[in-house]
Write a structure and sequence with these properties.
The chain is α+β, with helices and mostly antiparallel strands. The protein has three domains: about 10-115, Orthogonal Bundle (Helix Hairpins); about 125-155 and about 205-260, Urease metallochaperone UreE, N-terminal domain (HSP40/DNAj peptide-binding domain), CATH 2.60.260.20; about 265-410, HSP40/DNAj peptide-binding domain (Sandwich), CATH 2.60.260.20. The protein is about 25% helix and about 25% strand. It has a four-stranded mixed β-sheet. A three-stranded mixed β-sheet has the order 1-9-8. A two-stranded antiparallel sheet has the order 2-7. A hairpin with a 1-residue loop joins strand 4 and strand 5. The longest helix is centred in the first third of the chain and has 26 residues, at about 60-85. The chain starts with 10 loop residues before the first helix and ends in a 39-residue tail after the last helix.
Length: about 400
């Protein structure tokens, strides 16, 4: 409303131009809108065409525009005066008056002449996603659904339908701010009547409630490069919160957390670059370690059957070329290293044990060069007496001593 209590249409908002737009820009936008909403072209465009005609009459010519801007300025001064009058009775009334006088020129410029606001980029969003070990090794993607604001298609982002138009906010006078006193101390806050826009739609667009934007789910694809280290943050440009005043949208920052695999692990980093090697420990029955054979092991590409050479020893490492991590930039692929852990049988009955003894004793001594050689020169002092022992399990100080047997104690 102006100082006489009359409602004032916001012609700049109707045309979608800034108050400091040039006369040429105003006429160009008006011409395009008038052609679009002319009743001969759009049967429903009559109310909009009438509003556009009023707008061009008010701001399409320099003299008329000057009078219209003066009307807006008077509305700003009247609204600010009403707010200050209500605040001057408080303990900070004098400070409020001084602050208003300092800011009044800026408000008037914002509403009726000079664009004060600058484009503000939207804030970034943050998200954490979990990725399996194998997926991270080979590269993958994640689809995330986020609620985002998009321009309302019904009103094309204006906030008012064809039959509506924007009016200068009667509460704030078009400045988008009001003087409030939440905790005795006066402060300026965004006007809730116009949501800080300075104008209100009448009637408001129903789908967006006059905001010009609607909240919809949007699916974003997050590419996850191969060989990524856990804790790495990826950036998806434009997937953050929308900007203000023509500012660019923020970005989506995705922190990738790589889940541990029950069998596989990535080799320790070497220098500044993570290794491309994958490691695992795999148990091999003692007889297969001795005689050789095939065995299935897990890899980042799925289970793979490998050929075991004969004569494997505990702790020996087998290399699987090309089954490691793929480098996301160069495309190079590392290897998988399988550490053999020999497993000994448990729960054998006496017949099985007797068979093993007979089999072992039937082998030539040179088949066991270390165990046979370490007994040279040793003879029991007690003749044929055999000492009793107690079983205490594997030596925890020896990483290669885990034979796969249980750790229960008992006399041998």
């Amino acid at each position: 409303m102006n100082d006489e209590g009359m409602r004032v249409p916001h012609h700049y908002a109707l045309l979608g131009v800034a108050p400091d737009a040039s006369d040429e820009e105003i006429r160009r936008v008006w011409k395009a809108e008038a052609q679009r909403w002319h009743p001969d072209v759009s049967p429903q465009g009559g109310p909009r065409f009438i509003a556009l005609k009023e707008a061009i009459d008010a701001i399409g010519e320099a003299g008329a525009r000057k009078r219209y801007d003066a009307q807006l300025q008077a509305g700003v001064e009247a609204a600010v005066q009403r707010m200050v009058s209500g605040a001057e009775g408080g303990p900070s009334g004098r400070a409020v008056s001084q602050g208003v006088r300092a800011r009044l020129g800026g408000w008037i410029d914002r509403v009726a002449g000079v664009r004060e606001a600058r484009p503000v980029s939207g804030r970034n969003r943050r998200l954490r996603v979990a990725v399996g070990f194998a997926e991270a090794a080979l590269g993958t993607e994640r689809r995330v659904e986020l609620m985002s604001e998009k321009a309302c298609q019904t009103c094309e982002g204006q906030g008012f339908p064809v039959v509506g138009r924007p009016w200068v906010c009667g509460r704030c006078g078009g400045i988008g701010e009001v003087l409030a006193r939440p905790f005795l101390r006066a402060e300026w806050q965004a006007c809730v009547e116009c949501a800080g826009l300075g104008w209100v739609p009448e009637p408001a667009c129903e789908p967006c409630a006059g905001r010009g934007v609607v909240t919809v789910p949007v699916t974003w694809v997050v590419p996850i490069p191969a060989g990524l280290a856990s804790g790495t943050t990826l950036r998806v440009a434009g997937a953050g919160e929308p900007g203000v005043g023509g500012g660019a949208a923020g970005d989506l920052l995705v922190e990738v957390e790589i889940e541990a695999d029950p069998h596989l692990r990535r080799d320790d980093a070497r220098g500044t670059k993570p290794s491309l090697e994958v490691r695992c420990e795999w148990r091999v029955p003692f007889w297969k370690a001795m005689a050789g054979g095939t065995m299935t092991v897990p890899t980042v590409r799925g289970p793979v059957a490998i050929a075991l050479p004969a004569g494997l020893v505990d702790g020996e490492v087998l290399r699987l070329p090309g089954y490691g991590v793929r480098a996301g930039t160069s495309g190079a692929v590392g290897d998988q290293l399988v550490t053999v852990r020999i497993e000994w049988p448990v729960g054998l009955d006496e017949a099985a044990l007797a068979g093993l003894r007979a089999w072992g004793e039937g082998l030539a001594p040179e088949r066991f060069p270390r165990s046979m050689g370490q007994a040279e020169g040793l003879a029991p002092r007690d003749g044929s007496r055999t000492a009793g022992v107690r079983r205490v399990g594997p030596d925890r100080n020896d990483g290669n001593s885990d034979s796969g047997r249980g750790s229960s104690e008992g006399d041998l």
